[in-house]
Write a structure and sequence with these properties.
The chain has about 325 residues and is of the alpha/beta class. Helices cover about 40% and strands about 20% of the residues. It has a 7-stranded parallel beta sheet, sandwiched between helices. The structure holds adenosine monophosphate.
Length: about 325
């Protein structure tokens, strides 16, 4: 079992008279055998500078914690693409609306750290809300393009400005060579890819396939909210996506296929937010369905839980 070194910044370490980072460095360095938990910007900067000085490539895997096999797959893919892996764990308040689940969002810190140690991730960047949004914070990134195509943005109008702002901050703070994002949040992946390009960041954004349960339900930290009955109904989303993709691939008329899909999702007990077929790159409505790359995207609520999923046609 690798050794865990928790770097609690602040009073405790200052009381020893030794800066937090030195304490950690004496014990570890960012090596494959240790998981370093970094909580302050000076310590993060020091760790990044050290890696750069040693010519290590760095991958960032941004998460909100409550880690599951979907997150782990991002870490594993990242390990094939970079020398050192930083996983950020930050439940970003600015991407939750007041009526959403910020206060009840699952937090499983100890299990997350144990899993990341097992995976041999190198560092966890776990800033406080005050570090990310200091007193008087007044700079937001408000994305357009794929962030304004009337999918998630139509139902969560605050969401992409929150995501874009926090992701831009994470990418600027960590300066990774690559950053991993799941196709599970397909619109988010497109927004972040655009953002990195538009801001001229060094980071290459890499999308990773959706990890699913055996019955097709896409893994999500929010699945734990489902009651047994809701959990039993939930795979309908993926089933319908697959049926619709198959029919469209076979030349079925897109709107009629989607209408059938929408009815099937409602029959399964969901309140549908959207099921749509979009250009897989721009997320614009389809102009020429026979030649464009198509992605099906769905969002629906069951009980108090909102699930999203998507599938390539
Ligand atoms: P979250 O912690 O929900 O913000 O997700 C962190 C990252 O993990 C995002 O890039 C998600 O798209 C990705 N992710 C979440 N669930 C899955 C999944 N089932 N398969 C692949 N990636 C996922």
């Amino acid at each position: 079992m690798p050794k865990l070194i928790i770097n609690r910044a602040g009073a405790a370490e200052n009381a020893t008279g030794v800066p937090a980072l030195q304490l950690v460095k004496m014990k570890s360095g960012l090596s494959k055998r240790h998981l370093r938990v970094i909580r302050t910007l000076p310590n993060l900067r020091h760790a990044i500078a050290e890696l750069r000085a040693r010519q290590r490539t760095v991958a960032l895997v941004p998460t909100m914690g409550a880690l599951h096999a979907g997150h782990f797959s991002l870490v594993k893919i990242a390990q094939r693409r970079a020398d050192r892996i930083i996983v950020s764990i930050f439940v970003n308040p600015t991407q939750f609306a007041p009526n959403e689940d910020l206060s009840t969002y699952p937090r499983t810190w100890s299990a997350d750290l144990a899993a990341l140690m097992e995976l041999k991730a190198d560092a966890v960047w776990a800033p406080s809300v005050e570090t990310m949004y200091p007193e008087g914070f007044a700079t937001r990134i408000v994305p357009e393009g794929p962030a304004t195509v009337r999918l998630e943005d139509a139902f969560r109008p605050h969401f992409f400005a929150g995501v874009a702002t926090v992701v831009a901050k994470l990418l600027i703070q960590c300066e990774p060579d690559v950053a991993m994002f799941g196709e599970k949040d397909y619109q988010q992946l497109k927004v972040v890819t655009r953002l990195a390009r538009d801001l001229g960041l060094r980071t290459r954004i890499i999308g990773a396939p959706v990890v699913r349960e055996k019955d097709g339900l896409a893994l999500s930290s929010r699945n734990r909210y489902l009651t047994p009955e809701e959990r039993a109904a939930a795979p309908a989303l993926y089933r319908v996506l697959k049926e619709c993709a198959g029919r469209i691939r076979a030349g079925g008329p897109v709107e009629a296929v989607l209408d059938d899909g929408r009815a099937a999702i409602t029959r399964a007990g969901f309140a549908l937010d959207y099921l749509d077929a979009r250009n897989a790159e721009t997320l614009a409505p389809l102009a020429a369905p026979t030649v464009e790359p198509i992605r099906l995207l769905v969002a629906a609520r069951i009980g108090t839980t909102r699930l999203i999923d998507n599938l390539r046609v």
